[in-house]
Amino acid sequence: MSNTKNRRVILYMAISVDGFIAGQDSETPWSEEEWVAFQEFVKSCDYCIMGSTTYDIMRKDNSFVPDTNFLVATNNPDKDTGVFEKIVIKSGEDLPEGEKIGIIGGGNLNGSIADLGLIDEIHLDIEPIILGSGIRLFGDHTPKLNLKLQSSKKIGSGTIQNHYIVL
Asked: Among 68, 77, 109, 161, which residue's beta carbon has the most beta carbons within 10 A?
């Protein structure tokens, strides 16, 4: 059972100017500055939850940030998640204990968490690239969220990081 009173669930994603978190082949051509910002974010979280496709990509690229508590959200009980714990998220009660829970993709996980009304904040690193097609921020889900911009800053030579509060 999760501690919902002090918990913040924060969606953190890099996204293209045209709204994709990855291209058609799950490619993520993001900047070095975005990668550094991502690493800082995941290190600041009590837990970081990723979907099974994001896990597969990070495993293939060996891009797991050391000393981070990663969890893999999957409905497949046979999914090999290596050293990381598998979780199924059907409600807020399924989230781990902690004050800061990071959601780091992919689109289906982001959409499922948004549909459950669990996202408190969104950090978007908007990369100066147009992918044309690919995976949308919330996958095939269509949540409606009202946001308030908390801050916006330039990171690196062309990436803009926006921090939103979900109202």
From this structure: 109
Report the alpha-carbon angle 31-159-142, nearest 5: 95
Cis peptide upstream of residue 106 (ω within 30 degrees of 0): yes
Query: Are 101 and 49 a contacting pair, CB within 8 Å?
Result: yes
Name which of 54, 6, 18, 34 is nearest 125 in CA terms: 34
b/e string for 99-116 if b means 16 or more Cβ within 10 A?
A: ebbbbbbbbbbbbbbbeb
Can you tell me the distance from the alpha carbon of 95 to that of 117, in angstroms, rounded to the nearest whole number? 13
Interval 85-100: pLDDT, tens: 999 999 999 999 999 9
Block residue for tokens 């990436």 = 159
pTM (2 d.p.): 0.94
Q: Alpha helices, DSSP H only, in the chain?
A: 32-44, 52-61, 107-115
- What mean pLDDT is predicted for residues 61-76? 94
111 Cβ contact list (under 8 Å, min separation 6): 138, 139, 140, 141, 142, 143
